[in-house]
Amino acid sequence: MRIEKCLPSDSSVGNSSNKTSLPSRTCALAICFLLPLFIFIVPAVSAQSGVTLESVVLSVNDMHVLRSEVMEMFAGEPVNAERWELYCREMALYKLIEAIAKEEGIVVTQKEVENQVLKMLESEGYSSVEEAPNELRRMLPAYRRQIKRFLERKLVLEKKLMEKVVVLPYEVRNYYDEHLDEFRVEETRRIRMITILPETAADTEAARQAAKQKIEDAKKQLDENPDSFIDIARTKGNGPHSDKGGDWGTKKRGELIPVLDSVAFSLEVGQHSGIIESPSGFHIIKVEERQPAYVQAFKDVSERITRRLTEERYQKLGQEFLDNLLESATIEIYDPGPE
C-alpha cells in the first residue's frame, strides 16, 4: 500500500513536491463479513454534488473519499486523530470493494437494503418506517448506506473466496481427535426433591423446627411407602416444583447448591436420600434417571466441525483479502484530520 500525504503549500493541493510518505499500516477496522452486525450512526451533512478539492479527504486509486463520508462514520463521537486515520482507511476499503463489485457485476438491490432496514426496525419494536420516531427515521439514510456497503463487501468476499475455502475429511477427523474435550457431555441426573421450607419469612428457630418436624414426618411416610415420593412432594412440600411432584428436571454437576449437589450425585437410580438441611430449609432427594458422561461420536459432530473450520478459514482468507487490497492500493491523503 502506497500512502501519500498531500498537503498544499499554497493553493495547489496536488503539488507533488509536497508529498511525503507515511508508514504503511493495515486497516484496523474490519467490519465482520460473516455476521450482520450494523452500527446506528448519525447522518452527516450531505456532500455537495460537485467534488471540490476542499471536500476530498483522500483518493484511493483515483477514487475520491469525501469529508462528509468520513465524518458520517464518527456517528456523533468526538473527532480524534486515531479514529480519523482509521475511518479514512475504512472508507478507502469501501471504495476498493465498490470498484470490485462493479467490475464483477455484483449489485445490492434496494429491496435487500430495505429488508435489513425493516429487520432493524422490528428489533426496535416498529413494523414500518412510518411507525418509527423522527429521530430514528433521520438516521435511516446513513444506515442504508452502511447496510449497502456491508452487503456489497459480503457478496464480493463470497465470490472471491468461497471456492478457495476447502476443508478436507482428514482435517475434520484430526480436529475431532485433538479436541475431544470439546465434545464431552457431562453426566446428568433427573432429580426429584421433597422440600419443606420454614413457613414464616423471618425464618425463626420455631419456624425452622416446625419445618424439620414436617420433613421427618414425610421421611417416615416415605420409608413406609417408597413409591409415594411424588405424592408426598406434592402434598407435603412447599418449595420449588412441589406442584410438579418435586420434579427438578435434569441437572449437571454444580447446578444445585453444594449440599444438595453432592448428595444428588452420590445416589443410585431409584434411591432416595435421608433428610438434608440447607440454609433455606429441609430436603429429601431422589434420583430418577442417570445419563453417564460420554464423548459425542464423530459422526454426530463432523458437520459441526466442518462448519467451524470453514468459517475460521473464510474469515482468515477474508481478512487477508482485505489487507491485500489496501496494501496494493495507492492512497493519497489530502486532509490529515485533527492533530
What would a concise description of this structure say?
By secondary structure, this protein is α+β, with helices and mostly antiparallel strands.
The CATH class of the largest domain is identified as Mainly Alpha
Shape: elongated
Proportion of residues in helical segments? 40-55%
Number of helices: 9
What is the CATH topology assignment of the largest domain? Triger factor/SurA peptide-binding fold
Order of helices and strands: EEEEHHHHHEEHHEHEEEHE
Radius of gyration: 32 Å
Q: How many β-strand runs? A: 11
Tell me the strand order in the biggest sheet: 2-1-11-3-4
Indicate the structural class. Answer: alpha+beta
Largest sheet: 5 strands, mixed
How much of the residues is beta strand, in percent? 15-25%
Uncertain regions: pLDDT < 50 for 5+ in a row?
Answer: 7-50
Query: For the residues shown, what is the average pLDDT?
Result: 84
CATH architecture title of the largest domain: Orthogonal Bundle
Termini distance? 23 Å
Q: How many domains, in number, for the residues?
A: 2
Note down, in words, how this protein is organized.
This protein is 44% helix and 15% strand. With 339 residues, it is an alpha+beta fold. It folds into 2 domains: 2-164 and 314-333, Orthogonal Bundle (Triger factor/SurA peptide-binding fold), CATH 1.10.4030; 187-292, Roll (Chitinase A, domain 3), CATH 3.10.50. The strands form 3 sheets. Strands 2-1-11-3-4 form a 5-stranded mixed beta sheet. The chain has a 4-stranded antiparallel beta sheet with strand order 7-6-9-8, sandwiched between helices.
